[in-house]
Queue: 4 jobs
Job 1
Amino acid sequence: MTATMSAGGTASAAGLHKPRPSRHRRGRDRSAPLSIIVWALALYFLLPLVWLAIASTKNTGDLFSTFGFWFGDSFALWDNIQSVFGYKDGIFGRWALNTLLYAGVSAVGASFLATMAGYGFAKYRFFGSNAMFSIVLGAIMIPLTALALPTYLLFSSAGLTNTVWAIIVPSLVSPFGVFLMRVYAADSVPDSLLEAARVDGAGELRTFFQVAFRLMVPGFITVLLFALVATWNNYFLPLIMLNSSDLYPLTVGLAQMQSAGTSGGGGEVLFSTVITGSFISIVPLIVAFLFLQRYWQSGLSAGSVKG
Amino acid sequence: MAVTTVSSADPPATRRSPGRAARRGHRGHPLAGFLFVVPFMVLFIAMILVPLGYAAYLSLFESKLIGGTSFVGLKNFAEALTDPAFLGGVGRMALFLVIQVPIMLGIALFLALAIDSGRTRAARSARLLAFMPYAVPGVVATLMWGYLYGPDFGPITQAFEALGLQPPDLLGESSILGSMMNIVTWEYVGYNMIIMYAALRAIPTELYEAAAIDGASRIRIALSIKIPAIKPAIMLTVIFSVIGTFQLFNEPALLDAIAPVVITNGFTPNFYAYNVAFVNQDVNYAAAIAFLLGLVIAIMSYVVQLSSQRAERKVRR
């Protein structure tokens, strides 16, 4: 196991993912049955999203009268987008901006705090450091949603619910991020480099920002992506913390739109509006995923191989 | 219980830098290390430990319209343990755990092995497609599947009707749990697959090339070399799945709007805690449920961890 770990750890730490030469050789003998099963599964993942994309080009009439996996008689995507952004005086745009704000600030803040803490735990020994790290590790086990209710009760007793901070501050804490960055810092920042910086008279903070942080950037981005997805997709916390729809993120807003539509709220919300709104809300994340996907793998191999 | 696995993985990392103690004089000032950790720890205490403590405190009280708030000790916990709604939710999640989690992780492991083997056409694209649902918020995934299942314009109903068959009621009482399992599987196979795949990529090739030369079949290599080698990663996905299962909330909360009759307010323990806190306005009881739920999860993760260690010991003997 030790061999596996160090191989995985150092390769990912250095951000090297050279394809192994042997894979090219073996690449030639494809297996048709295997490919068919894998691609059948891939279709299972893709088709619902294809349906969503097609459905968002239909008006409500076509939605009911034409087959789900083919386009309708009219191409209503632009009309639908207009009705999404026109819904209740453009509140959808507001929700999108809120989501961007919550996810952006929380993710950057959480990964920065996790990087600093991970570095501190990996490269320094101080009173209580082991005890503190053990508590943080134990907290990975605490289910976030089970924690949301207690957090709400606390915020509510302090009168802080229904504010931006009620979403951002709890999202700044990422115990898993600290764990990942500690592993990452231990692997990617050589002690000798830190010593050299100190011998040259650089202060601890300067050493961190100008030497260590640069080496930890790939790990930082992995934690950033995790935190970004977690906050972007969060539903429970904003649902309980926020009352005014001006502060809603997309998830809560969409859910509210849907329930207003199905509970017969005067037909104000059309199915096509909810569907198109859902489609619009996932496009940015999917694009970000496709572009940043190599960070997922490298960061996860540091975390999972060791964990 | 990543705690135990992690600490067991720790020594090699420490061993890698020899003479650490000797160089301690050159190490940074301990106070600097403390200061790096402080910002996170302050928030950690304020956002995790304090809420937990506060919830524990609240769970020991009871508030009534007449008589106000009074200390009742563990009464709320005793009540929850005999509450059919809470127990029903926990039972449903236990069912989820034994049916959905093995299916999801089985598919994830199969995909990871298939894509890593290099014998699949366009493996890279297949990997990306499988991972894509993870980018879709649970809310949107549930909304989308709700429409796909739905009787009005769901393509499943459409397909059955086109063939002249009776369409299945995917949102009925007997099928809703299965429909929910499908949504969760769709969302998280890719995430688990990536964790396993990353671990597979880290196995040194020599380990199985020798076996291949000795004439071991590919399936045999996968079963007796690759899977044992990525066991820590598989355990991580199992534990994450246990945690995820017991805190299911989005799926019941959103399906409730389209299938209000079959989604009871205790469908999942977390959905129950939410309903108790915000519909029944019983904060104290909700705190006790949230606490018990955390306890159930901790015990389940511990059992999983323990049983895997026991299994490993048996193999070694």
Job 2
Amino acid sequence: MMSIEASPSLSSVFSRIARRELSVALRNEGQWLNPLLFFVIVVTLFPLGIGPGPNTLSIIAPGVLWVSALLSVMLSLDTLFRTDYLDGSLEQFVLAEVPLSLIVLAKIMVHWLMSGLPLLLMSPILGVSLNLPVSAFGALILSLLLGTLTLSLLGAIGAALTVSLNHAGVLLSLLVLPLSVPVLIFGASAVSAAASGQAVLGQLALMAAFLALTLSLAPYVCAASLRIGVAGSN
Amino acid sequence: MFKWIHRFGSPPFVYRLSGRIAPVLGVLCLILMLTGLYLGLVVAPADYEQGDSYRIIFVHVPAAWMSMFVYVVMAVSSAIFLIWKMKLADIVAQASAPIGASFTFIALMSGSLWGKPMWGTWWVWDARLTSELLLLFLYLGYIALRNAIEHPQLAARTAAILAVVGVVNIPIIHFSVDWWNTLHQPATITKFDKPSMHPSMLKPLLIMVVAFQLLYFYNLLVRVRSGILQREKRAAWVAKELEN
């Protein structure tokens, strides 16, 4: 384990945890590659299911991209805390003298770097394939930036609640998807509005507000649930 | 001064008290519900626009109100359980979840039945129906999470956190769905927002609202009693109680 000096500053704790998470994640390509592939494949399924008409596609593109991103983030959440729970690191995090919520936040941020950011970078390419007007790309990327961060934070709550279960997969989505409806509504509507040349600042501002709310509350909720999960298993 | 409150933490006391109150609530509920249904379905005149189909509000509106009320009860008792570790609060939350889900389901069903003659389809993505559907998902998520975790203590505390997270989110979800709805389909008929309701229609509605409230508390007490028995099954007082 890492050596922690007498009173580590919060920012150094954050960066150490983040670096540990990042190196663990980078050694396991599946962790960032699989959600990304899932995103691409799900988006591909829609034209196959609905038909290749460019006009239809450009109408459904914002919703398709957003729903696929949502599902892809859900898929990647399952292992967020479970591997640490199974190998005992989580217990050490709970016992550590630094705030658990800070450690949790570092883990969530790395999770977003590994799952949200690739989606963000991939989305314009998929937008092109769905005939999304170029004018909507800015809104697409901005709304996904705000939205996937919020989804990672919200999803972390679900992952923390189900940490003691062997297989949370579907249950996790069941818990988190209803909570993520606001993000989906405003995210998809920002992209649609931009595609039809309307102002998107309102939607993006609301999404930023959701992000601020979840960013300030979710780490504490996650920490509380993880404490319960770790204590309950003994 | 707090002695009075502390008695409610004692399972035998609550078990006996609720055993005495529940039948009273049940009978009152039955009387009010029969009166409300009689006044609503027989006495009240037909609406001049909607005909007889408006009468579904006597079930729909109370059920929809209760669906939200029960979630708040669930969240508040979950918070009490998390903060003060009061076991009874958890039993209340656990007992409320299926009742609340049923009220939500009744509201959805009756809304959809009402939609058929009014809108011509069984389902319209109306803001209130959609919020109600999402509320049903939240209830089902709570129940599913509770069932998935085997360890009862762990399940109780985990589910309590979910209930509190849910109650923070419900207003946000409701607001988003409202906004989404006005954006996508303007000028849907506003259902029950009549500026004024004739007293002959309002009176049965209010009676039904009280009756549904009593129905909830009656069911809650019955379920809380069996919840207490289940958890205290090894306690001496339970054996004694069940002997009689």
Job 3
Amino acid sequence: MVVQNELSLMDKLRILSDSAKYDAACTSSGITRKNNGRGIGNSLAWGICHSFSADGRCISLLKILMSNECIFNCRYCINRSSNDLIRTSFTPEEICTLTMEFYRRNYIEGLFLSSGIMHSPDHTMQLMLETVMLLRTRFHFGGYIHLKGIPGASGDLIEAAGWYADRMSVNLELPTAEGLRQLAPNKSRKTILGPMRLIQRGIQNNARTGLTLNSTDALPDRQSAVSRPAADPFSEGSLSRHSSFPAKRYNADLSKPSFVPAGQSTQMIIGATDESDYHIVSVAEALYRNYGLKRVFYSAFVNVNHDSSLPQQPDGKGVPLLREHRLYQADWLMRYYGFESRELLSESSPYFNVLLDPKCDWALRHLDQFPVEVNKADYYTLLRVPGIGVRSARRIIQARRMARLDFDGLKKMGVVLKRAIYFITCCGKPMYPIKLDADSITNALAGEERRRTFELEDHGSYKQLSLFDDRMPLA
Amino acid sequence: MNTNCPNGHDSRNTTVYMCDDSIDSIFTAIYLAWADGTSRTDVRVRKPYETLSFLESRVETSADAELADKVASSIRRKLSEDVYGQVCYACLSDCPDKASYVYRFLIKAFRTGRTILNALQDTDVHNIFKLARSVANEAHHYLEFIRFEELANGVLAGRIAPKNNVACLLAEHFSDRLHNENWLILDTRRNFAVLHSACQGHIFADGITEAQLERFSPVSQQEDAFQSLWKCFFDSIAIETRKNTALQRNNMPLHYRRYMNAENQS
């Protein structure tokens, strides 16, 4: 391995951002924090995207590796030790300069720092910790920091890092321990789940001592949600759990330290091993439940190393983006719509429908629960109607207190009538006579979905998933 | 010019109160029109080269801080801060009919009370909602896409050319974020600027042109280097096999990129 550290800053940036680009997470969300009064920077809970790269993905953070030197040899990874690459590393000072200067010019929301494993996991984590300490204490940087936890690093280092980062993530990489053994021989479930548990405990302790954190529950507790009187889910503040905007908290005051305040996330590679969609969403659900994760990211596999033991991709295009897209749709349904993984898929039908999104698919399998009367149905019933989202359901509940709703009114609420008309009535009447029959509805919906899928794969005019169909007005 | 006002009211005998394109001016005209009787009046923002309808009579008004304050405080007191916020956002829109929309909305709002914003099925409410949403969306996009250049005198200068008048909505955000920097944001379409002085606060200034900004100071020596570094990062972070410029353009429309150097070259 040839290590070149005398490269220019530009060359290092090119190499170390190029190596970081396969990491899916680039969000800056989860925490609102005012300026600390000494340096630049603040943070907004709903996140800000500063640019979109040529592949259409959001650029919100300076996503780089500390180093692309790596002693591990994970088969899927471009930086594996057996690859012949130019290897280089940033110094902590270089990273601070780039972060500060990019931030001042409004290019980024903050730093996303990951790394290959230099010498040992502890050595690497130590350097990353030094970098964020420098950034926070010498440069008084108040922007967003997302830090990778290095698998196998000691607990002390991970914990120390958690007091400086907003979000930490340890990549699960593959959904099964078996897949990990095959493809990432230097990593194990233990070295990945260990730090994950440690970060979770840190967040919980921080919350228990009453300093800054809210509940870290990512999944809504459906049972209590359903049994709650449906008329008024908002006034009592119960919606906060379903909203992506946590209550505002300001931890500019350093006497109130907060541990990983924007929560922890992880990433799974999709399609490198042969797990089914059902398997993947079950793993994600378990992570949300048991590890209190804020987000699970799915990364459609691209065989960058042309490794023969991995799925071959002769067209060079990687796993179809539609698969990744369906997983994100399901992820959203689990986190915000009160769905459980076993409602969406099962052992007997373990893959998502190519032609229908998971919510339409579910609705068609449960036609006995439809049509829903929009003037009467409770919030959680509305949420299950295809074409009605979190925002439009909220608006419907508020608007129908003022006057009865008709289809024209629903359109103004942002309901996607193309999908919703098959599943709703207004004042007892459907928009036009509709046969509640799975085949005919499937045909109608699939025609529309085929067009969207085509756009996704070939034209890319789909929007990135967002919880809300339009943005929050500025405060 | 239509002989009917946009809401389909019969415009015969309508008195139209003409105002300038500012919140104060619109509020003043609303106050005067209201006093005249809401059933036969309308409010409109003055445009250059406007034809008169012979069925309307016009009353020219100019901003009066006291009257505007009365309208503002009534909205805040009798309705709510939310309603006030939505109305202010709507007034920043570039929609030519905004004054009339706001007027119609307020007539209904004072009749209905503070729950008015929930009645989205109502056309007058929905109109205001749409205007406010489009202003808020554009403002949010500029929080994302505005780029500052460092000038030789240390000032960070950002230029924008927004459709709606959103510069004032960016001030609060950057005053907090870059509180210890001297910076300015210039709306090059309206020649309107937000000027911030380090650790102090910001002021709004009218009548500042792009040419004046260029005379103010050249860019700093290291500016080009950092712009090149950003361009380098911007290019290398994209996954070549997933190239998708349509999606990129969808998420970051070209009109926002006017002053985004790296993104403009791609």
Job 4
Amino acid sequence: MATEQSMTVKAPWSAPSLPPTVLWFGVVALAWAALAHFQRETVAILWQWMPHLAAGLRMNVLISALAIAIGTLLGAIVGALELSHRRWVGAPARGYVQVFRNTPVLVLIFFTTYVFPFEIRLGSLYLAFPDWIKATLGLALPASAHVAEIFRGAILSITSAQWDASASLGFGRSQTLRWVILPQCVKRVLPPWMNLYAMITMSTTLASLVGVTELLESAKNASNTVNRTDFTVLIYLAVLTLFFLYCYPITRFTTRLERKYAFH
Amino acid sequence: MPPAHQPPERPPLVELRQVHLSFGSNHVLKGIDLNVRKGDAVSIIGPSGSGKSTILRCINGLLTPERGEVVVGDTPVHALRTEAERIALRKRIGFVFQQYNLFPHLTVLENIVLAPVRILGVARETAEREARELLAKVRLADKIDAYPGQLSGGQQQRVAIARALAMHPELVLFDEVTSALDPETVGEVLSVIRQLVEDGMTCLLVTHEMRFAEEVSHEIVFTDGGEIVERGTPRDIFHAPRSPRTHAFINGLRN
Amino acid sequence: MPESWLRAFIAAGRTVGLNYAFLLDARERASWLRGIALTAELSVLTILCSLLVGIALAGLLTSGRPWLARPARAFVELMRNTPTLVQIYCAFFVLNMLLNQLVGGAQNNPLTAYAWAVIVLSTHYGAYHAEALRAGIEAVPRAMRESAISLGFSRRELLAHVELPLAFRFALPSLFNNFVDVVKSTTLASAIAVGEVTYASLMIWVERDNVLEMMILIFLVYGVLTLLVSRLGILLENRLRMPGYGH
């Protein structure tokens, strides 16, 4: 081997790629050390609170899944409208995206929670409109704006030559979209869409600020009820770890997908 | 015509003795012997992948050979251990790249004065005055405030030569400097190099421009497969090669 | 602003059913305007601090020394994969509590909720900046390094005159996207009772029950602030454009 002395050859500026196993090992070791540090009793209290925390976490998962579903449907529509050649269709759609992308998510959650009614009247039927659903809508609005941008970017990234080629084969505009463009878009859309899901999941904690009992709120309740220093430390660390364990694999997988698709 | 050969007792400025280098299992240099006397222009020719550019990178310490000696002036390059020693060496050696490698965020003038001002500590006015002279010499005085991206390949390469000369090097290494150029801009770069050789600058060139190499060099070195197959005057190499491999290479080019 | 204009504005609001009467109450108006000022201040301060954190982390990430790069990488991943609000709580309810015990009572603790907001948001977005800068540094062509080294640049000079200026240009669009996110994230400080504009508005709508009215104002405040930041980004991009390079 050449003795790689110079900076050019050694390339010390290339990213240190951290094998995931090393990171996982580190996390587990840290958690282990932290747990060992706490008294048995504290850990036992945490164990008692587990069902409460688990219920909270279920709420985060439920809200995030619902929000991404609504956001994707709404975003697909808005994205399609954005691409419309009619100005009175395209401009409002772009305005929608601008407003909901540039407003803080927390403000949107306040908006849907306090401006929307408690219940919806359908004829003589009153449907309850609970806070957690309002918070979900508050998350779905910015999500739809982001999804619209993701879709629009993906569709625009496919060259006009493909539209021309399809047109010359007798495809109409919507047929071209359905059979030629969209299948190619899926690859480009998937990584940013998954990133968005991770972002939404992390934003579900904001629902605690409008009184939804999700994981962070449950932890806060537990911490206030037990009122012990070591328990407070432990429970917030537990929340941090739980979110990390949920979101890190998603972003890790996203990065892998991005690398994979970058070569196609 | 190159100036007549000066007496051979002049000591070599660059000397390579039995230089070996490999990248992994790829043995790139297999015992290279080479010397360049002060004021000479030496061209290294040979098929692609024969280790020509690697030789240049061993001379300015971008690469360090596994075995053998590289000496520039009094400096044993193979024995340099610290970055500071290598920096001191590189200040004395100009290097011109195939891809020009100008700094895209700086104007032509800034590209040329950056190293003299920052590395050598030359006063800014002095450096700028010299830069103007050098630009006039490479016939680009009017491009002084342009950015590299606004210039043609040939113009960028001439700026790169001016940038190397601004360090007052004892020696300039040219690494296939016309290979990336459009055919119509090759001539302007070659004429700048020709001028340099006539001014007595020591030059070591890796090139595919055979006619130019024949015309401008004092000595031609033919490499193939990591070895030096043959060396001699341009007349010998191009018209009376001794080795059949040289012969085949030269003839291959002609046809 | 002259009082007569305010009255005209409030009357106009009333005709379309919007209640902006709070603007006539000197105390409420002052606390709301202070909220806007705090949001702007918090945004600027956090952008600057997060950039410093980002540069430091990017330096570690690209140092080529595993014992520096790996902890930095782990920190960046932790910051990017946990909710900002959880980080704020971990800082304010855990670290701040421990600090209180360390210095013997909250009255001796120099760190306010405002300070914690700056610290947490800066480290959170610093991690994002670090990724943008790292990508920028890696986008610097290797040949550019080789040519700078051949001119006798030391590693430090190479970084200062070639790598960082180029990396900064490559990273600029991502950085300004992050800055817009920083502005938006300052709302989270309301969760620990920092009186920025969201919190100040909340205090008003709790009393006056005029949520929609306050929401419209909040949309406008963030709209203007994020627009300013992204305009500044475009301005800087144009200033630093390398003519003829890229597109």
